[in-house]
Amino acid sequence: MIMRPLGLAVMALAFGVAPLAAQEQVKLGVLNDQSSLYSDLTGSGSVTAARFAVEDFGGEVLGKPIEIVTADHQNKPDVGSTIARRWIDQEGVTAIVDVPASSVAFAVQEVTRDAGVPFLISGAASSGLTGEACSPTTVHWTYDTYALAAGAARGVVQDGGKKWFFITQDNQFGHALEADISRFVKEAGGDVVGSVRHPLQTTDFSAYLLQAQAAGPDVVALANAGSDFTNALKQAAEFQLTQEGIRMVGTSVTINDIHSLGPKTAQGVQFAAPFYWDMTDETRAFSERFAEVEGKMPNHIHAGVYGVVKHYLEAVEKAGTTDGLKVVEAMKSMPINDFFTHDGSIRPDGRVLREFYLMSVKTPEQSTGDWDLVNVLSTIAPENAALPLSESKCPLVANKS
């Protein structure tokens, strides 16, 4: 956890004492995994990204200082919802940010819905957060399982990957990924030849990989994330699946995962993501600034935290209040423009529309540096990366199109 200017606020949270000025401040709660399998993907990096956004905005809004507090939800829905309630009811938090792990995000969304507090999601991916469970105060900012599925499935099937086998994390996130990708595989003319589910934080994937081999697929899709993804891919390399002509597809991959694995192990893996640090002068400038603090390049979750915090503060200024419903209404009325997103928008269901990219991990020979890790193969248009509103089950969507 980064303490710097946040230290006193975090200490106050640790002892259950709210700062006396809390009700006079705009206070953002960055809630994520700081000690487990998603900590490298979110963790202190998300806090740093939020701090940058506050600094770049000017440090205050509506004449009030902006404060950031943070906590570890431990990937437990009950822990996450308890922290969210305490933050809102006792400590004056005006918006909750990040929240990886879809199971935790669904629990926190119920708290923020009841309290009328903005829930600014960057880390969680389940498309159901803007589906039947959608909330008028939720903005699903960075990515979701539908976008990951659209990017990973269409291009791979068209390139000859017809028969798919899933190794799936046994939670809401993994189930949503498998369901969304299976739909795209079948629509593109492919077939799902089998699947197997594994517990969170699995270390031995040998039995699952043997089942995948036995099914004779063209593609093994890893519908998991964090250390589960990296452990599965390492063992797939040991089993020499790619040498048998099987294509490995990551369905929720960050640059941190690829850096951890290295090009030798991860080369050729295809995945979809909305951001890569080395795309433009603007993404490189943000990423180098981030790396000076965190010692690594940012992923799309970190970039998303920066973007959603900045957009939220701009909306508070426009609305002239921190009232949650009014602020989210202002967020939806404003175009999104930053180093990450150009001319993006927020739909009535809370889903952000932006481009996604199909990427492939470079070979060791192609990589020219420690973080020079992927090639961008194609661009996925915003309208093709989001579930059509005509198919939405969100009750907020009155006029579907």
Describe the structure.
This protein is α/β, with parallel strands linked by helices and 401 residues long. The protein folds into two domains: 4-143 and 280-354, Rossmann fold, CATH 3.40.50.2300; 146-273 and 356-384, 3-Layer(aba) Sandwich (Rossmann fold), CATH 3.40.50. Helix content is 40%, strand content 19%. The strands form four sheets. Strands 2-3-1-4-5-6 form a six-stranded mixed β-sheet, with helices on both faces. A four-stranded parallel β-sheet has the order 8-7-9-10, sandwiched between helices. Strands 11-15-16 form a three-stranded antiparallel β-sheet, covered by helices on one side. The radius of gyration is 20 Å and the shape is globular. Residues 1-23 have low confidence and may be disordered.
Descriptive tags:
6-stranded mixed β-sheet; disordered N terminus; single chain; 2 domains; Rossmann fold; Leu-bd; 401 residues; alpha/beta
The CATH architecture term of the largest domain is: 3-Layer(aba) Sandwich
Number of helices: 13
At the first level of CATH, what is the class of the largest domain? Answer: Alpha Beta
Q: Biggest sheet: strands, sense, closure?
A: 6 strands, mixed
SSE topology sketch:
Elements: H1 7-14, E1 26-32, H2 43-57, E2 60-61, E3 64-72, H3 77-91, E4 95-98, H4 102-115, E5 119-121, E6 138-140, H5 145-158, E7 163-169, H6 172-187, E8 191-198, H7 206-215, E9 219-223, H8 227-238, E10 247-250, H9 255-261, H10 263-266, E11 270-273, H11 281-294, H12 300-319, H13 324-333, E12 336-337, E13 342-346, E14 352-353, E15 356-361, E16 374-380
Parallel strand pairs: 1-3, 1-4, 4-5, 5-6, 7-8, 7-9, 9-10
Antiparallel strand pairs: 2-3, 11-15, 12-13, 13-14, 15-16
Helix pairs in contact: 2-12, 3-4, 5-6, 8-9, 12-13
